[in-house]
Amino acid sequence: MLLSLNWLKQYVDLDDISPDDLAEKITKGGIEVDGVETFGEGLKNIVVGYVKSCEQHSNADKLNVCQVDVGDEELQIICGAPNVATGQKVVVAKPGARLPGGMKIKKTKLRGEVSNGMICSLQELGIDQKFIQKEFEDGIFVFPEDTEVGSNAVDLLNLNDTILDLDITPNRADSFSMMGMAYEVAAILDKDLHLPEVEVNRIDEKAEDYVKVRVEDADLNPYYGAYIVKNIKIGPSPLWMQNRLIAAGIRPINNVVDITNYVLMEYGQPLHAFDFNRFGSNEVVVRRARNGETMTTLDGEERNLQKDHLLITNGKEGMALAGVMGGVDSEVKDDTSTILVEAAYFNPLTVRKAAKDHGLRSESSIRFERGVDPNRVKEAGLRACQLMQKYAGGEVLEGIAEFDEQAVEQSIVEFDAKTINRRLGTAISVEEMKNILHRLRFSFEEADAHFTVYAPSRRGDIQIVEDMLEEIARIYGYDQLPYTLPEGTSNAGGLTTKQKLKRSIHRYMQSAGLNEAMTYSLTKEENTAKFMDQYIRALQPKAVKLAMPMSEAHSHLRLSILPELLSSVQYNLARRQQNVALYELGSIYVNKEENISKQPDEQLRLSAAITGIWVNQQWQKEVKTVDFYVLKGVVEGLLDLLDIQHASFESLKMEQMHPGRTAAILVQDEHVGFIGQIHPAVQKDMDLTDTYVFDLDVDRLLEVAMENEGSYEPIPRYPSVSQDLAFVVDEEIPAKRIMDVISDAGKPYLKDIQVFDIYQGEHMDAGKKSIAFSVRFQDPEATLKDEQVEEARKQIVNTVEDSFHAVLRG
Amino acid sequence: MRERLEELKQEALSKIVEAKDTKQLQEIRVSYLGKKGPITEVLRGMGKLPKEERPVIGQLANEVREVISKELDAKQEQLDQEALEAKLAEESIDVTLPGYQQPSGGPHLLTKLIEDIEDLFIGMGFEVAEGPEVEQDYYNFEALNLPKGHPARDMQDSFYITEELLMRTHTSPVQARTMEKHKGKGPVKIICPGKVYRRDTDDATHSHQFTQIEGLYVDENVRMSDLKGVLNSFAKQIFGQNREIRLRPSFFPFTEPSVEMDISCKMCHGEGCSVCKHSGWIEILGAGMVHPNVLRMAGFDSEIYSGFAFGMGPERIAMLKYGIEDIRHFYTNDVRFLKQFHHA
Ligand SMILES: [Zn+2]
User: Fold this and answer.
1) CATH of domain A412-476
2) pTM for the full model?
3) Cβ contacts of B106 on chain A, cutoff 8 Å
4) Mean pLDDT over each residue of chain A, to the nearest integer
5) B243 CA to middle of ligand 1, Å?
6) B271 CA → ligand 1 middle, Å
């Protein structure tokens, strides 16, 4: 809400506080001030002038030469505005004046004629186009006839005002009005409050004789009041009122509309003025709209209604969408003479629904949505009548036609001063608390430090002790609260084993050379089928879809991290970052139901994608491009970190992956993920260079890791013996199979096996390869004898030769 | 004979000086000190000398041998030293060439920041609690004093999946779930980090997915001043000891009283500048005393227990701390972005 300080000054004395200080105090009181703007900062030498004569410029069609009386002198001013005319009172910027934006007015010549200043439009004075009265939109502004020539135009146009832009939280409906802010500021500054008095002279006719009110659904509309004002003369509202509306961000229209808007801002109570002669009946019937019913609103739009929307009708047709917008049929026009002033309390949810459905959030609907002060509805309506009487020549009828089933409950909150201090950690005296309640203008009783507070109806948010805790604390000042540390039970805190392991995985992946990435969990539908691990696929998951996604790109929950991670790789490649190594540790969302009814199973996965050069020592002529084994080494290192034994890699065929360079990763013979190169065709589709990925089931890995207690094995005291063995075998035999056979045959002294050479090509028969192992033997109990080693070696050679038709190379 | 010995000595010594390598030295050693060498020969001819001169000459001969031997050793040492120096000189390298770099990665800035905040609160006795990202309406809203139709639900337009399931809009449901597990018995001291989702169009300041970290402390007699004290030590440790904090009243449905915390602007030290929109303060987080309805719904007696909760956005903190201008950087994973924060 925009808060005009000139307006606020009518209620609270602000003479001894600067706008910036006031803004800070309001912010610290709980209503955030987003901006402080002084309209006419630096404006001077701008006065009211009287156009004595206005003649067309002899050398320019569109210019007029005006003789303008500015009080102490007469100035010749050249003016190009289409609406300038003799007899007008206008805004004159005299030579030496400064306009917003720093423009300086100087004596000048226009096509041979002297111009001693400028006749201004409101835009030129810094007022936003959208707030300017229609008639002055395309030209200069014209003052009412009774304006004094020579007086300060800046003051008359309220350009000396400062506006605070308030961000009001949903609980503080009371602050959504000038009066509400007057209460707030008076409390914060501890000042007196002067509110307007509503006094109306009534004529000897009764509103009830003109109109009856019937409400079908009291829940949606517990109170509806209708005042009648006769003999209205539509015209402009007084300048001060127009100024205040502009300051509040509302464009002045005519006296009746301006008055309802003025009271809306003043009281926070939305009102509606119907042209009673066009209303079409003598009965206001408030009812739910029928499904499919239509009504044309003031903005000319035909609205399709349904039963959740509340309608003000004349018994037959809709005349207004309750609390949101009036209908075009009963709109106030220039010839309107009798007005029905609606002052009502509409259910916040109904108004919210209608405003949302029709995209008609307005100053009115916002206030109804938050809840207006039920005890000030009638008074606000009467205030409008008073202003119509004064500024539109209206005659106000006796009484009010109303429907009233509103039960206004008095909210009573009781507390002890001790409780307040204990909960806040303060030592506020009873006297001080009483003073705070007085400042807030809450009625209360106090006896022996026990308070009974009767919350005012404008403060619907005050219901429980905690609400009073906040009121007392905020007026006392959050600044004044001491800094303490909790005195309660002390406990150690810390991470769970699983959380620690997750951190270890991060550290490991990073030291292994990968950058942690974060991608979106929501992805496009087609991605949910891609790179899905076979274990997940076997669960036959149904990708979870958002009911109302913002875009197709983020409509479904991921079933693999890889599609989005690969998009990130592609993003980098497209920006000439050719070497990319990314990983992500995050959830996938596995749902097995056709129509989802319960939360999906969120499974933790670790995915990685690498491409480009892994090691690049150019001047040392050593460049290693990423390949399967680079990434496999990362996985093996990870399994080692988690102390996971019995892991193996088996050739695997899966969609989107290279058929000859992909492996399933098994731990204790269970599938825990996969590793491999993206299929070249897929790489091409995705604009990727050769890219290797892996995807691991972290939940399962951590389960296995946590089973291991981490036992200690003594450092061997006896030396080990190594032997190298090279075999020639058929090329398709995987190394792992030979190693398994060696492990078995080498018992009991075999300690470990390493592959140290693979050879194919020259001096080797076609279809054959040579594979060389280094095997190490050790006896933990004694030094191995040569015969023992020889025996083990023989055993291995024989078994390998028999099992694979292998030949030991000399 | 005396002269002969002296002559031999001079001869040997000058040869030693001239010797160029170990081999020559070895030859000198053999030729002068060996069994067939001239000194031995001199000693052999001693029989011809008068008896009283023999020991004198013998001693002299030994002295000569000793001198030659010492000089040989010294020369050898000198040659060894020279050889070593030559070798080292030959082995010297250009130390200015680049080193052998191991591939190196690093954490995502958000993970790093979240871990730092976790560690800070772990130090104050908190545990880290996690929960599902797809939540039930009940835990995401209702258990937090946001019944259906509550206007504040508008504040966080949500990604619903069904009427009852949605992408969590904050990590607060983890608080509700954890409190429920405690079955009405305190203390509960948790910090809840995680991903959250809102129906926003992605732009420089909005992201439909972002992270949040929230804290909850429920115990007997938790005071609002405790919240102030804890937030103050948090702010000083994360943003620096010279930063001040300011609490302002605010509104959240799950806390009462509610506060927003600002820290003094680093750029202008409270004077007001464009970064802090001329207020001297920058908004960092929301917090408050847990609403009694929230305590009650989770099974706690709100007469006995009270607590505080706070929540913040690591993206916002990172953006303020490092001057990052676009929230999308956190999710596009440009390696030029990621690599800047390895040491953050
Ligand atoms: Zn600043």
Assistant:
1) 3.30.56.10
2) 0.84
3) 510, 515-516
4) 92
5) 12
6) 6
